[in-house]
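Worked example 2:
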Amino acid sequence: MENPTVNFEEKIGKTVGRRQTLEVGTASAHLQQTGAQLFAKWGKGMPKGVYRYQSHEEAERDLIRNYVRET
């Protein structure tokens, strides 16, 4: 087995330390606030149930019609 060649001038690019993250409570509050904003903007959307359509265009028309009716 041959000895490996080591280049001491090569930069490895690895950083040692800790990642700075948001605290769990702060991250949770941000997610909850975003969900509330989306719900306020879009409302409930379509009523629950199973829908069967003949084409994507028909499904899109029904989706838009339900969003318009909500606002």
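The longest helix spans residues 24-42. The chain has a mean pLDDT of 78.
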